[in-house]
Design a protein that fits this description.
globular, Serine Threonine Protein Phosphatase 5, Tetratricopeptide repeat, mainly alpha
């Protein structure tokens, strides 16, 4: 669906108000279409639009409003994956769960956020065989679970989650993919902050060494003069900017 995709691209370009409007238009069009002629594609498109609108609301500081949208998206994808036996939709369900977890954490509901991330992690792990691209999505769920664990004052568990995320991402780092850059930026930033807060200087040094000595190729990608080299890479532009900021901070 064009509007749903437009909302996604606008969100990746950090035009959140426009992404919200595009997503709401997509939902308005998809609901009657699904009611009149139910199909897997339309169901998943609606779930995508609901998730995109939820994401935009979170970025616009309206996280509470996002929760029912994430819940509906999760339920639609659960129906497809479990009741209809179409497991290929589990990865999309896991994505919606992770985004719900982020919203819950922002609302101070850290225990519920950890539960949402755990459910997403299980789904990703079940479908990892033959789908290596899912490891970056799994890494994202792990790093955000770590952030929620920090809110619960469980730094050791949080660090374990960050390390699992980094292991997955570093295994793919040489490919220079935008989604890996974004995930690596997040994992490094979160672990650096945790180690600094808990006065663990030797491990902080290890993180900085990793960024400075092992990321030259990723740095060049992140610092491309145009900021977004190539239309196919547009969804990763925000990720590359965040990664560049991490490198510059270090």
């Amino acid at each position: 669906m064009g509007l749903s995709n437009r909302g996604y691209y606008l969100h990746e370009l950090e035009h959140f108000a426009e992404a919200l409007a595009a997503g709401e238009q997509a939902i308005t069009l998809l609901r009657p279409l699904l009611a009149s002629e139910k199909s897997d594609e339309t169901t998943n498109c609606l779930a995508s639009a609901l998730t995109n609108v939820g994401d935009a609301l979170v970025r616009l500081h309206r996280a509470m409003e996002s929760l029912p949208l994430f819940d509906e998206a999760i339920a639609l994808r659960q129906e497809l994956a479990e009741n209809q036996g179409k497991r290929q939709f589990n990865k999309d369900r896991a994505w919606s769960l992770t985004n719900k977890g982020l919203a819950l954490a922002l609302l101070g509901q850290a225990a519920e956020a950890v539960a949402a991330h755990d459910e997403a992690i299980v789904l990703y792990q079940q479908d990892m065989a033959g789908q290596p691209h899912l490891s970056a999505m799994l890494a994202r769920a792990l790093v955000h679970k770590g952030a929620a664990l920090e809110q619960l004052d469980r730094p050791a568990d949080a660090d374990s989650s960050y390390l699992q995320s980094l292991d997955l991402l570093l295994a793919q780092a040489s490919e220079g993919k935008a989604v890996v850059l974004a995930g690596l930026a997040e994992a490094l930033r979160h672990r650096y902050t945790l180690l600094t807060r808990h006065d663990r200087p030797s491990e902080v040094a290890e993180v900085l060494s990793l960024v400075q000595s092992g990321s030259s190729r990723l740095s060049r990608t992140a610092r491309h003069p145009s900021g977004c080299p190539g239309i196919p890479q547009i969804p990763g532009c925000a990720g590359r900017r965040r990664f560049a900021a991490t490198l510059n901070t270090a």
